[in-house]
C-alpha cells in the first residue's frame, strides 16, 4: 500500500488488495472510500470483499463508484458528505488514485484557493491543472450559494429550539439559523403517558414550522459535518453555512439495529417501545390486552435518554394490570444492563416499594443482544461482578425494549467529539473545551448530566447568556453556569409520581417545598405536574423563550477569578 497524503484527513492510493486493508488500519486510517466501480478490471476485488475486510479490521468503508471521465457535481457533493461524516483520517482509492484526488479537488472549491488545491494534488503526484477552471467556477458558485449567520444552531429538538428562543428573547433581531430537516417536533417526555393510556400520540407533536421562533431562519436540511477551524457547517448535498457562533444540539442516536432482529419485529409480536412516537400507542394496546404471562422490560448500557423511562413504562403497565385484576397472573422482569435500579441512590428505596408491590423481578447486568419476535424469545448478555459473561434466553408474551443509544455520527466523526464520541463541553459554561466559538446542549452533551428535557430547559438559558456575552451583545459581568440539573418524574402508578430532581454527582435538587412535593415520596401533585403543567411549560414557555424556574445563576466573582 502506497498512500499519498492530500490533507491530514485524506490520503489517496491506487487499487488496494483485500490483504492491504489491515495495513491501512495499521497505518492509522479509520475509514476507506472506494471510488472504483466493481468489475472495472480483472485485478480488483469487489466492494463487498473490501467492506468485509474493513469490518474485520475495525474500519468503516463506503462505496462511491465513479466512471472514468464522468465526475458530476452530485458525485462531488456526495464525496464531500462522506469526508464530513466518516471517521478521520480517511484513505480513498480507485485504479490509480486520480479519481479520488479529483473528487477531493473539486470538493474543496470555495474552501481553499485554486493554487493550494492544485499544489497539494501535485505534491501527491497528481497533475490536476486541467481542472483549474472548473475549480474556479465551483468556488464562485459556492460563494454565491453559501449562507452565513451570526449564530447557527444544529438541531431543532428541545435544546435547539429552546436556546434559539432564549437568545431572541434577550436580543431581538439577532441573526440566527436553525439547521433541522424534520417537519415535525415532538414532546418526547409525553410518550411515556401515551404508552400508559393517558395521552394520545397526537398530543405530543406539532409542525416544526410552528415552533421555530419568530425571527430565526429555518434551514430545512440535515447537517453532514463540522469544520470548526473554518467556522463552517457542511449540509447534505454539499452546501455550507458559516457562522460566528455555533450551537450543537442534534440529540442522540437510537440504535435500533444494535439488537439483532429488533428492527424486523418492532410494533408486532408483542414487541414495543415508548422511545418511538409510532410505537407508544402499541405499548398501550399490549397493556390493555394483557391477560397474564411474561412481560419483560429492558434497559441498555448508559448513557441513555431519560434513564427512568424504561421503568416508568413498567410501573404504569403493572398498575394497569393490577386495576384489571391480571397482575397476579403476570411474571414481570426488569432486565437492566446496569448494576442499579436508578442512578441516584436516594430514590432507590421509594422505587423498591413499588418493585415489591408489583412483584417485579430485578435482573441487573442483563443486556439485550438479540430478539426473535415470532418465536417470542429474547437473548441477553449477562455480565457478572467478576467480569465473566454468558448468554441467557427469556421467553416473553410482551417486551418493552429500550434501544442502545450513542452520540450521533455527525458528532462522533468530527473534531468536536470527546474520547467517547459525545460533544466535548465545559460542564459549567457549556462552551466547547477546544473551540470557544462552539456551544452545545441537550442529549449530545458529553457533560455528566442526565439526558432529559428538564436538563435542556436549564441548559438553554446558560448557553444563551454565555454566547451573547461572548458576542458583546449582552452586558453581563459574569458567566452563567449550569449545575447539572435534570429531572425524572417517575410515574410509579397512574395518578402518582416520584419527582426525582438531581444535579452533577447525583446530588438531590428538589425545586418545591416538602409540604407541596416531597421528592422522596409518590404524590398526586407531582403527577399533575407531569400530566398537565410540564407539557404547557414545554410548548408555551420553554420553546418561547420564557424561563420559569430556569433562570441561570452566575459564576461568583471569586469563582471567576
Automatic annotation (TrEMBL):
GO terms for molecular function: FAD binding; hydrolase activity; quinone binding; sulfide:quinone oxidoreductase activity. Residues 149-269 form the FAD/NAD(P)-binding domain. Its EC number is 1.8.5.-. The keyword Flavoprotein applies. It holds the Pfam family Pyr_redox_2. It comes from Methylopila capsulata. Its cofactor is FAD. Signal peptide: none annotated. Residues 5-110 form the Beta-lactamase hydrolase-like protein phosphatase-like domain. This is Sulfide:quinone oxidoreductase. One of its GO terms (biological process) is sulfide oxidation, using sulfide:quinone oxidoreductase. Keywords: FAD, Flavoprotein, Oxidoreductase, Quinone, Transit peptide. The keyword Oxidoreductase applies.
Amino acid at each position: 500500500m502506497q498512500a499519498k497524503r492530500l490533507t491530514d484527513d485524506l490520503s489517496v492510493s491506487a487499487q488496494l488488495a483485500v490483504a492491504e486493508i489491515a495495513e491501512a488500519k495499521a497505518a492509522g486510517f479509520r475509514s476507506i472510500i472506494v471510488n472504483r466501480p466493481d468489475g472495472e478490471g480483472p485485478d480488483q476485488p469487489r466492494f463487498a470483499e473490501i467492506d468485509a475486510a474493513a469490518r474485520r479490521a475495525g474500519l468503516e468503508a463506503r462505496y462511491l463508484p465513479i466512471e472514468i471521465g464522468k465526475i458530476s457535481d452530485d458525485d462531488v457533493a456526495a464525496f464531500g458528505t462522506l469526508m464530513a461524516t466518516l471517521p478521520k483520517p480517511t484513505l480513498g482509492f480507485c485504479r490509480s488514485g486520480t479519481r479520488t484526488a479529483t473528487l477531493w479537488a473539486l470538493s474543496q472549491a470555495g474552501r481553499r484557493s485554486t493554487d493550494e488545491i492544485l499544489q497539494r494534488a501535485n505534491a501527491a503526484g497528481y497533475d490536476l491543472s486541467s481542472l483549474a477552471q472548473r475549480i474556479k467556477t465551483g468556488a464562485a458558485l459556492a460563494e454565491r450559494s453559501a449562507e452565513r449567520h451570526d449564530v447557527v444552531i444544529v438541531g431543532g429538538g428541545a435544546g435547539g429550539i429552546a436556546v434559539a428562543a432564549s437568545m431572541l428573547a434577550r436580543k431581538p433581531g439577532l441573526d440566527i439559523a436553525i439547521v433541522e430537516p424534520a417537519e415535525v417536533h415532538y414532546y418526547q417526555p409525553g410518550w411515556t403517558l401515551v404508552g400508559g393510556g393517558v395521552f394520545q400520540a397526537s398530543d405530543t407533536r406539532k409542525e416544526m414550522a410552528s415552533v421555530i421562533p419568530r425571527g430565526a431562519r429555518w434551514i430545512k436540511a440535515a447537517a453532514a459535518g463540522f469544520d470548526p477551524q473554518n467556522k463552517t457547517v457542511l449540509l447534505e448535498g454539499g452546501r455550507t453555512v458559516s457562522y460566528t457562533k455555533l450551537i450543537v444540539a442534534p440529540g442522540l442516536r437510537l440504535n435500533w439495529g444494535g439488537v439483532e432482529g429488533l428492527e424486523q419485529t418492532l410494533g408486532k409480536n408483542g414487541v414495543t417501545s415508548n422511545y418511538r412516537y409510532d410505537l407508544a400507542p402499541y405499548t398501550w394496546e399490549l397493556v390493555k390486552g394483557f391477560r397474564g404471562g411474561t412481560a419483560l422490560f429492558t434497559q441498555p448500557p448508559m448513557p441513555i435518554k431519560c434513564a427512568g423511562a424504561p421503568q416508568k413504562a413498567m410501573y404504569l403497565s403493572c398498575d394497569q394490570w393490577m386495576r384489571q385484576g391480571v397482575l397476579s397472573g403476570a411474571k414481570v422482569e426488569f432486565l437492566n444492563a446496569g448494576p442499579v435500579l436508578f442512578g441516584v441512590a436516594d430514590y432507590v428505596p421509594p422505587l423498591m416499594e413499588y418493585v415489591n408491590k408489583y412483584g417485579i423481578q430485578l435482573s441487573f447486568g442483563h443486556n439485550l443482544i438479540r430478539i426473535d419476535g415470532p418465536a417470542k424469545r429474547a437473548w441477553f448478555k449477562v455480565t457478572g461482578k467478576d467480569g465473566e459473561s454468558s448468554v441467557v434466553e427469556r421467553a416473553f408474551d410482551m417486551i418493552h425494549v429500550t434501544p442502545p443509544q450513542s452520540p450521533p455520527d455527525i458528532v462522533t466523526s468530527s473534531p468536536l467529539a470527546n474520547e467517547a464520541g459525545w460533544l466535548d463541553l465545559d460542564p459549567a459554561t457549556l462552551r466547547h473545551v477546544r473551540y470557544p466559538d462552539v456551544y452545545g446542549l441537550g442529549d449530545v452533551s458529553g457533560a455528566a448530566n442526565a439526558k432529559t428535557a428538564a436538563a435542556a430547559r436549564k441548559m438553554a438559558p446558560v448557553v444563551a447568556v454565555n454566547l451573547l456575552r461572548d458576542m458583546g451583545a449582552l452586558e453581563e459581568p459574569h458567566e452563567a453556569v449550569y449545575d447539572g440539573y435534570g429531572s425524572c418524574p417517575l410515574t410509579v402508578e397512574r395518578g402518582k409520581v416520584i419527582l426525582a430532581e438531581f444535579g452533577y454527582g447525583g446530588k438531590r435538587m428538589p425545586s418545591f417545598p416538602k409540604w407541596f412535593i416531597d421528592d422522596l415520596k409518590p404524590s398526586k401533585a407531582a403527577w399533575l405536574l407531569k400530566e398537565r403543567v410540564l407539557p404547557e411549560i414545554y410548548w408555551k414557555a420553554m420553546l418561547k423563550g420564557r424561563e420559569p424556574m430556569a433562570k441561570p445563576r452566575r459564576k461568583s466573582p471569586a469563582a471567576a477569578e
